[in-house]
Specification:
binds manganese (II) ion, about 50% helix, TIM Barrel, about 425 residues, alpha/beta, three-stranded parallel sheet, globular, single chain, six-stranded parallel sheet, 13 strands, 15 helices
Length: about 425
Amino acid sequence: MKITASHIEEANETLEKDHLESLDFLSQRLAKKGIDTNLIIEKLQELQIAIPSWALGAGGTRFGRFSGAGEPSNIIQKIEDIGLIHALNKSSNAVSLHIPWDIPQDYEAIRQLAKSLSIQFDAVNSNTFQDQVGQKESYKYGSLANTDQAVRELAIAHNKEVINIGEKLGSKALTVWLADGSSFPGQYSIRKALQNTHESLSEIYKALPEDWKILVEYKPYEPNFYSTVIQDWGTSFLLANKLGPKAYTLVDLGHHLPNTNIEQIVTTLMSEEKLGGFHFNDSKYGDDDLTVGSVKPYQLFLIFHELVQGFSETNNPPLSWMIDASHNIKDPLEDLLQSVEAIKLAFAQALIIDQKALEEAQNNHDTAKAQEILQDAYRTDLRPLIAEAARRSGGAIAPLNAYRQIGVRNQLIKERGTSSKASGL
Ligand SMILES: [Mn+2]
């Protein structure tokens, strides 16, 4: 299945008149506040969010998995699916691959396919949270943190292999998320586990090509329930600092205890030039992997507020933007289209904040005014800008509508059948 320019044209045709009217009205309103909508639209056109290869099939829980129909069963079909998303929204021009779930057989063919769909290769992800068939050692009691040197060496070798695979595809970053931890007090030495993790990561760091980054993810609990070796941003930041200039902290929105002030973490890391990237998702309780912006859109906006300030006021390097979500209920492609829209919307809202007035209110200790300024931006309906950014780039005014109108899922089911299963899930 390929989405053509005439598909998009047809889908946009009926919406265009209404859309342009809304855009015109909004542009005039924003112009009165001194905001140039064209500049915002250009920034939205530039924003590209990588799609993880594991989000294209229905995810599952420990209780079960309900497969969708027409799922991509290999890396080729997964990249094709991202091509479909990108054709619709023009904001998803990269894939974040999971190894070993998505090891290419024919690198040249994969590179050609990705190129033909304007897809790049973002950070590659290693996996030492499960054992693979025939694996010599087991990660049951940890990988990079394991007390057993042979297990640590296996996990280090795997990460080096992931770097090699990424190099062949043009990736520039390795994301490491560790399940390592303990489920019971006393199960292991917390201090030694961190020390082992640092030493193992140092070995991996040495194998990084010159222009690569290593992104160290953190998570407070799950799958282990008493301690996680890299439990929070502080531990990740500590390791990133110890490792060196190519190491950064990766913030996964779902990897925080309830009510954590994530925007504060983001801005602190940017001040220290150590924020490497994002895994976007949303949640109510824990690592729920819900659609970005579906539960806490205001928090997402506040995070983008810090990001927008950080871009202009710190020297933090450009970020890897990735979605990390996958669940049972929705069509994964619809879920991803919604997630990318939510990210673009939060970015746009943050871009129209009156920074000068906000600074003035802060200096005058005018708390009520400061809140008004933020919420004025948040409560302005900027959806016409998102639609226009996609339209100007050759995408759909309403990507989800277009997806349904074109009948993408039905076509994929025709091509792949109803029982195809996404690899790795
Ligand atoms: Mn993640």
